[in-house]
Amino acid sequence: MQDHADGSLVVIVSGSIGLRPLVERLGIPDRINHLDPFRLGPWDRDDSVACFRALAGNYGLAMDDDVPGAVYDKLGIGIPHHVQSFFARLRDHSIKTGGARLTVGDVDQVYQNELLGPSGQNDLVHYETRLKDGLDDHGFSLAMEILAEAAITEQFDGEARRLLAADYERIIEDVAACITHTLEVLVHDGYLDQSDGVFRFPSRLLRDWWLARFRDHHVPLRDRARTRG
To answer: E strands along 125-218, which residues?
Structure first.
């Protein structure tokens, strides 16, 4: 790098949205052509359960044996921060109840009232704000539509993609390319997984959070098309 032909060293700093979407937005994707991506995936069930048990042992938290597995099932995927956040909420719940032994019922209660409730917003709202940082205005609008659709209908498929393009074709120039780029960002940053052209939330927590936010405000794309037709 220091022996670069023009004698200069270029430093690029990015946040959680990731380096590739950032340089593509800036129009300098060639700056990272020589870098090989190394993606850290989520924990599997065994690692998530082991982490939760280790945390519980460290803090002397009494719990039924099936609590760590129930935590993983609620989250749907072992994102380390979410496992740790869930533990912290359950520990607070234990303190509030005088150190009572945690049960699967407590896992359900804390998931609904804490992780998805007002106190859990600080942990999840950044998933929306970081999209604003990584996408332009049109891309952000499409991202919110795609995520709301995937949360409410449990998937974003080829038909939904066609209907979304038709809905925005008079607003966004080259809307198909913009949707493609937006989906690439959503997959790259872990919001959605893609299989055979169908996009879904890998995280149950993120899907439930988006569902709670938009189920009363988002009309599914197919329903919009029927209304117009």
So the answer is: 193-195, 198-200
pTM of this prediction?
0.81
CATH, range 136-228: 1.10.10
Instruction: For residue 61, give the DSSP letter.
Output: -
For residue range 71-112, list pLDDT tens digits in order.
999 999 999 999 999 999 999 999 999 998 999 999 999 999
Domain boundaries, the chain: 45-124, 136-228
Check for a shared fold between 45-124 and 136-228. no
Among candidate residues 128, 165, 150, the one with its CA nearest the CA of residue 204: 150
In angstroms, the CA 100 to CA 62 distance is 7
Q: Which CATH architecture has domain 45-124?
A: Orthogonal Bundle (1.10)
The token pair at 9 is 């060293």
| Number of Cβ within a 10 Å radius of residue 161 | 20
* DSSP labels, 76-100: SSB-HHHHHHHHHHHHHHHHHTTSP
Q: At a CB cut-off of 8 Å and minimum separation 6, what does 205 contact? A: 74, 75, 76, 82, 115, 116, 124
Which has the closest alpha carbon to 218: 162, 151, 172, 154?
151
